[in-house]
Design goal:
Keywords: ATP-binding, Kinase, Nucleotide-binding, Transferase. With about 160 residues, this protein is of the alpha+beta class. The protein is about 35% helix and about 20% strand. The chain binds ribavirin triphosphate (RTP).
């Protein structure tokens, strides 16, 4: 009851090219599904250069920016939109620290990655960016609004 009164947010989660190449797509999706969030968008997608640059525009001045863009467009990514109470912060926790060597065991990066430049997955860092990024990566008809079958233990 308490949770149902709170704000439902949405976040953009992306399996990065290394996650796809290493066969971790199912594992990544599974972590968010098992937690109890609702999937509202999902596609495999070859990201063009301009979209990668727009997505990471806040990092444009960083020395690693060119390598980051090269990495993101190096192969298909898995684009996901997830919805739920507190989903943005919870997803960041499930993903773990940016540097996988500092990410806690039990997190996606802590369990599955070693290098910052190959850290398997992206998650929006605020509800505002969640909305912005979902609008950036998905066309309207690609998102599904649906009501899960009654399962009050997940609310
Ligand atoms: P993300 O946006 O991918 O979820 O990652 P984040 O918030 O944890 O980290 P952020 O600082 O926004 O950086 C975005 C991505 O850039 C790559 N990166 N490389 N020093 C480096 O070489 C470096 N620092 C960041 C990572 O792929 C990081 O996830």
């Amino acid at each position: 009851l308490v949770a149902s009164l709170e704000q439902v947010d949405e976040t953009y989660i992306m399996g990065k090219p290394d996650g796809v190449q290493r066969g971790l797509v199912g594992e990544i999706i599974s972590r968010f599904e098992k937690k109890g969030f609702k999937l509202t968008g999902l596609k495999l997608f070859q990201c063009p250069q301009d979209l990668a640059e727009e997505h990471y525009k806040d990092l444009k001045g960083k020395s690693f920016f060119p390598k980051l863009i090269e990495y993101i467009v190096s192969g298909p990514v898995v684009c996901m939109a997830w919805e739920g109470v507190g989903v943005v912060a919870a997803a960041r926790k499930l993903i773990g620290a940016t540097n996988p060597l500092q990410a806690e065991p039990g997190t996606i990066r802590g369990d599955l990655a070693v290098q910052t430049g190959r850290n398997v997955v992206h998650g929006s860092d605020s509800p505002e960016n969640g909305k912005r990024e979902i609008a950036l990566w998905f066309k309207e008809g690609e998102l599904c609004q649906w009501t899960p079958a009654q399962a009050p233990w997940l609310r």
